[in-house]
Write a structure and sequence with these properties.
DUF4160 domain-containing protein, alpha+beta, 5 strands, DUF4160, single chain, five-stranded antiparallel sheet, 79 residues
Length: 79
């Protein structure tokens, strides 16, 4: 697991031996899994556990703001 961003109390990680599609796991009080490219081209929430709606919205905004950097990091890690 590689922490790629820390922001607003969240830790955004990419697992080294994870699977496609490109996605991140966001840890705060709970956890969320977010695909970096959803069907509409924007990040897509896959699931969230133990997070309030406001935390999910904030984590989605952070992923959207940093999507290009996160995709680049995913490619570095997974080839």
């Amino acid at each position: 697991m590689v922490t790629v961003i820390r922001s607003s109390g969240f830790r955004i990680v990419v697992f080294v031996d994870d699977h496609e599609p490109a996605h991140v796991h966001v840890y705060g009080d709970g956890e969320a899994k977010i695909n970096l490219i959803g069907p509409d081209g924007l990040p897509e929430l896959i699931w969230a556990v133990g997070m309030k709606r406001s935390e999910v919205r904030r984590s989605m905004a952070i992923v959207l703001e940093n999507r290009d950097a996160l995709l680049a990091r995913w490619k570095e890690i997974h080839g």
